[in-house]
Amino acid sequence: MSIVVCQWANLIACKTRRNALIEQGMINHRLTVALYIESAICILLCYIPGIQSSLKFYPVTWWYWICPMPFALAMLAYSDIRKVLAIRFPGGFIEKELLF
Length: 100
What we know:
By secondary structure, this protein is mainly α. It has seven helices and no strands. Helix 1 runs parallel beside helix 6.
């Protein structure tokens, strides 16, 4: 669960180079559908009994969905702060070294 939740944050953080998430929005519908499909696959693998027994999985509690949320929010906050600083200080260290 932690990997999936942090992948959500990473995908959203890396979708633009300079625009913040609030400015850009989630207008890429393929990206939104991909997030839903990834979540659905994760839920199916964890909670469908036939798949659980064949793959030796066990149902996870709600805590495993909530636990990585602060890390995902920290990733999003770091990404937006980095983008704001790169815009405010063009040609500086942050723009040269920390933007892809």
